[in-house]
Structures are given as C-alpha cells and as structure tokens.
C-alpha cells in the first residue's frame, strides 16, 4: 500500500456483512479512504483526500467514524454510506486531541480518548443520537492526570470498556466499569500488552511486545488484585542525582496562556532573517587547502537561508588571482541564487571527485517538488549560469575548457515512486524517471544535450529485503561532434574518501566504476546497469553505547555502456562488474556514519581489463 503509517501500517475498519475492509492510504499527506473487497481483492478509492484516520465501523447504520486533523484541531467525523463525504460531529478545543474512537455493539454510543497539554488523558462518551442532531454534550467516563488511557473498546455486553494504560509503568490491560467507574487491572506483563479485543466471556486477544515485533496471544478475563510497578530508569537516575531536575523545562501547566501576547500579521521571511552562526572554516581548492570564515543567516522558520564563505590560500602555488575564494548562496522558497570566485569545497580535501572550480560564476535556479500523493513525487526545475576565467568545464573536472567564458542553461523534469518495507535501509522497489536537458552557449553557438534516466526495481520473491534493479539511461548531444561541449564524460565510483552524499554514487549517469573519472567520452550513449541489493545484515549486540554498527549492506552490479551508437568508426561497447559494501556505524550514540568499500573491473574488447577500488566515509548520515 502507498504511504503506510509507521508501526501500525494503516487505519482499518471491517464490514463483516459485506466482506469489505476500509483502510487509509497516503498517510504521510492528506489520507485517502480506500475500500477493499475481501473476496476479489479489488480496491476502490472512496475519498481521495479524507484527512481521516482512527477508523471504526458502525454495523447498525453502516457508517464509518474516525478522527480528522486540520489546522491544529482534531475532530470526530462521520462518513455515511456510500462513503463519499466527511461530516464533522465534534471538534475538541484547541490544545486538546481526541483519538482511539470505539462504537458500542448496539451502535448507540461512541467513546474516545482525549489528551490535554499537561499530559492528562480521559475517556469521554457520546450518545450517537445526540451527535446526529447537533448536541455535543458528553460524559467523562474516567480520567488520569499523568498517565495514558489508550485503545479502549466496549466489552461484548457493553457494560465495560477494555483497553490499555501505562499506570503500572508498562502497558497493561485494564477494564473500566461504565456504571460504577471502577478501574480494574486484567494483566501484569513486564513487556507490554496492546490492542485488546474481547473474544468471549472469559478471554481477551492481545498483542504482546517483543524485539521481533508484536506477538498475538490470549489472556484470561479476570481481575488481578496485586501487581508491582515497573522501575523507571529515569526515576532511578533522579533518586541518585536529584540535580537533574534542574535540567528539564517547566511543565506546560505553569505557563499562563492568558498573559501571552498574541499578534496576527503577515510573515515576511526576508525581514525575519538573522545571523545564526559564524565560524572559521576550511575547504579544498585544486590540490591545496583554503582557510576562511563562514557566516550563515536564516529566517525563523527556514523559508530563506543565506551563506557567505570568505577564504584565502596565499601559500598555494596557484596564480595570485586564484588565491582569493568567495562563495555566496541564497535560497528563498523554491528559488536559489549563487555566486562564486574560485569556488572551493570542503570535501575536495579528500578527493578524488572535485567540486571546486577556478574562475567566477553567477547563477539562478529553481526546483519545485510536488508530493500530494506520497510516495509519488513530481519535480521540475531549471538553472541559468554564467562562467568566467574557466580552466575546466563546469560539469567535468578533468576536461579542459577551450574558452574562458561561457553560459549554460539546464532544465529537468521527473517522477518517482519508490518504496521500502519497514526497517528497510534503502528503497527496495518502485520506479523513477528523469529527463534532463542542458546546453552551453559559447561565442554565439549553442551546444544542446539531452539525457533520459529511468530506474525500475522490485523485491525478489522468497528473499526478504532483497531487491533487483534495472537502471537505464540514454543521452544525445546535438552540437558539433568534435567540440568538448558536445560530449558526455564517464568514469569512477564518484565517492570521495570523506563525503556527504549517498554512498551509492555509482548509480549516477556519469559514473562508471572501473575507470578514472571522465576517462570515457561519447557524443551519444546508451547505458544499462543491473543491480542486486542483497538483504542487509542487521548487527545486534555489537559494540558499545558510544560506538556500534547497525547494518551491513552489500550490492553487486554490472554495467554495459554503448558509446557513440550509430557511428561505426567510433562505436564502443564497454562493460564493468563490481561490488560495494556499506557499513552504518553510530558514533557517540547519535552520529550516524556510513563506511563504504567498493571494487569494480572494466572490460572492453581489444583492451586489457582495468580495475578500481573505492573507500569512503559518509559523515552525519540521516
């Protein structure tokens, strides 16, 4: 299913009479309501943007009920058959949230949990007949000032509510009497029980927490009179070190909301920009290091950002005009502006891929991403740049520029739908397509080029978390064949020894592990890569609290690139085969890094094989 909910996957309701499931999809966006026929598996989207979860089904009038969130408010809503409209029935006050609704077996009452800003929770109950005529009055069945009341459902006889609470320090099953308001313990588990469902007069179906997932089981429906609370590690720390109390923020109930000044006005990102950081910095330029100072600005919510880096390298052997380094980047919403003089880059210190360039540049860019129905993403954008005093081409670090000044224009559009299973470390299935067009404008002549890139992948049946991908790309230049601006240049893994990008740089269109960067060139090309991502090895109970690995991922790939198809005298078929291993290592309990190693071998008829090794560390992974 598209865009599942973390852990619970989806919100689900069941119509037993007609054999239908109702689920929510697009859960990371506006949520759609989908009906599934159990017998045929046919899916039908009833409402594309319902914004409604926590679904429950009322078999009496065949209506769906749920919780809808909008503009900071949570509301109880009704979706009557044929399930094409969402009707608000009750909206909680701002700052309070309702969740976990349940309908009585006779279809006359509905309950739900409600929480407040101080952490208090309660179970409230409505008469459905009152809600239908606009009466919003409700009864507070039970309330806890500092603990949870979750997943409560009506008992089979509608005389009790059965749910979960952390009252003992771990999630246990509790029963609330609707007449006498008794709060009775039905379990005393040390790991946690969830989602209770009464099966009969003497048994309850529950899910028990374990490190390998929730395990279903049955417990007796009987009251427990003695139970020991779980010892909280935080309380033990406080008992030994009471000074930690000063480390925490005051509770929300100490804030006098009435004394706060509220003011509504238009927000202007540029007017709200301020200096957020300033610090010495170091970067790489060609074969030397540059040292300077970096300043960063941003507005309060991050809609506009600016960065200025001023640096020098007076000790270098470069010409004097290349010893001053300036870089300015400014982003506003989907727009960006950049200007640079002898652009430098921190990761150029570690090579072999270099982003630094001699000369000056100025440009503007735009990139727009549409994700209304995640995981389906659309994007499009363009950039315009002017370059001066060039030594190499802007895109290709090892190709000398025949002229010093030129302009470039690029535009791209693409779509992707990529998914991974819960716990997956990388995308495991889906597709993506991207169309990129760019051109150089040199001394009155235009050199246009076009690249189409498409990937498709799927999980291999019977091999959990193992995926196979076909990654295709094709490019055509329309300029003069003998011009450097009319060629594509390939080669290398494209990782630096210390890097910030995704470890799988070998997937890029211009990458070709087995030969040096920019070693292969062509006026047009067709490239196909087959890639097998083997199930990652999860590493448990290894390392210490400040240094431990989480997974080891391996990928095997092979590529066939056809250079200059259609030109017999220049046609080349080049192949490679390689492997890459990625180890995620966590430093200081939080900082994720990825340590990568790769090997590839290049093959071509009439030439001896070539090989290439790659080692890289990605800092601060997400």
Describe this protein's structure:
The chain is an all-beta fold and about 625 residues long. It has two helices and 38 strands. The protein has helices at about 130, 235-240; strands spanning about 10-15, 20-25, 30-35, 45, 50-60, 65-70, 75-80, 85-90, 95-105, 110-115, 120-125, 140-145, 150-155, 160-165, 170-175, 185, 195-200, 205-210, 215-220, 275-285, 290-300, 305-310, 325-330, 335-345, 355-370, 375-390, 405-420, 430-440, 445-460, 465-475, 490, 500, 520, 525-540, 545-565, 570-585, 590-605, 605-620. The strands form seven sheets. The protein has a 17-stranded mixed sheet, with no helix packed on it. A four-stranded antiparallel sheet has the order 1-2-3-4, with no helix packed on it. A four-stranded antiparallel sheet has the order 5-6-7-8, with no helix packed on it. It is elongated, with a radius of gyration of 31 Å. The mean pLDDT is about 90.
């Amino acid at each position: 299913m598209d865009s599942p909910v973390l852990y619970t996957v989806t919100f689900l309701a069941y119509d037993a009479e007609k054999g239908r499931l109702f689920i929510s999809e697009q859960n990371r966006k506006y949520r759609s309501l989908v009906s599934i026929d159990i017998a045929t598996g046919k899916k039908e989207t009833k409402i594309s943007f319902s914004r409604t979860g926590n679904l429950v089904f009322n078999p009496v009038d065949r209506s769906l009920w749920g919780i809808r969130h909008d503009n900071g408010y949570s509301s109880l809503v009704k979706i009557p058959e044929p399930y094409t409209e969402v009707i608000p029935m009750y909206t909680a006050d701002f700052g309070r949230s309702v969740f976990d609704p349940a309908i009585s077996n006779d279809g006359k009452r509905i309950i739900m949990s409600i929480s407040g800003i101080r952490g208090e929770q309660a179970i409230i109950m409505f008469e459905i007949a009152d809600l239908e005529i606009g009466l919003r009055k409700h009864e507070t069945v039970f309330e806890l000032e500092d603990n949870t009341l979750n997943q409560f459902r009506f008992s089979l006889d509608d005389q009790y509510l059965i749910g979960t609470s952390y009252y003992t320090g771990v999630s246990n099953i509790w029963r609330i009497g609707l007449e006498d308001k008794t709060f009775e313990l039905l379990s005393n588990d040390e790991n946690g029980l969830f989602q209770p469902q009464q099966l009969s007069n003497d048994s309850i179906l529950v899910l028990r927490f374990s490190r390998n997932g929730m395990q279903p089981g049955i417990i007796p429906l009987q009251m427990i009179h003695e139970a020991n609370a779980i010892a909280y590690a935080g309380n033990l720390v406080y008992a030994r070190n009471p000074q930690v109390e000063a480390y925490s923020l005051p509770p929300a109930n100490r804030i006098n909301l009435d004394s706060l000044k509220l003011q509504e006005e238009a927000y202007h990102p540029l007017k709200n920009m301020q200096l957020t950081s300033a610090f010495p910095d170091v970067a790489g330029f060609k074969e030397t290091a540059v040292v300077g100072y970096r300043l960063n600005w941003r507005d309060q919510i991050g809609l506009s950002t600016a960065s200025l880096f001023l640096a020098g390298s007076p000790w270098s052997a470069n010409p004097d005009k290349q010893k001053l380094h300036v870089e300015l980047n400014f982003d506003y919403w989907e727009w960006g502006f950049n200007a640079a003089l002898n652009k430098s880059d921190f990761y150029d210190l570690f090579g072999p891929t270099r982003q630094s360039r001699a000369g000056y540049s100025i440009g503007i860019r735009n990139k727009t991403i549409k994700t209304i129905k995640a995981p389906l993403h659309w994007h499009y954008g363009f950039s315009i740049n002017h370059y001066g005093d060039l030594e190499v081409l802007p895109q290709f670090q090892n190709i000398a520029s025949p002229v010093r000044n030129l302009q470039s224009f690029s535009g791209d559009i693409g779509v992707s739908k990529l998914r991974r299973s819960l716990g997956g470390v990388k995308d495991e299935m889906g597709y993506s397509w991207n169309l990129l067009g760019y051109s150089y404008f040199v001394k009155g002549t235009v050199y246009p080029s076009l690249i189409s890139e498409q990937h498709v992948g799927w999980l291999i049946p019977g091999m959990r978390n193992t995926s196979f991908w076909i990654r295709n790309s094709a490019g055509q230049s329309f300029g003069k064949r003998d011009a450097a601006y009319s060629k594509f240049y390939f080669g290398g893994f494209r990782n630096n020894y210390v890097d910030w990008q995704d470890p799988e740089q070998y997937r890029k269109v211009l990458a070709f592990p087995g030969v040096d960067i920019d070693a292969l060139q062509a006026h047009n090309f067709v490239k196909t890569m087959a890639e097998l991502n083997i199930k990652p090895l999860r590493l448990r109970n290894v390392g210490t609290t400040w240094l431990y690995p989480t997974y080891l991922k391996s990928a095997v790939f092979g590529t066939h690139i056809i250079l200059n198809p259609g030109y017999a005298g220049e046609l080349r078929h080049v192949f490679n085969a390689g492997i890459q291993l990625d180890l995620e290592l966590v430093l200081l309990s939080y900082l994720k890094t990825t340590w990568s190693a790769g090997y590839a071998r290049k093959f071509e008829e009439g030439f001896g094989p070539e090989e290439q090794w790659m080692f890289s560390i990605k800092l601060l992974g997400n």
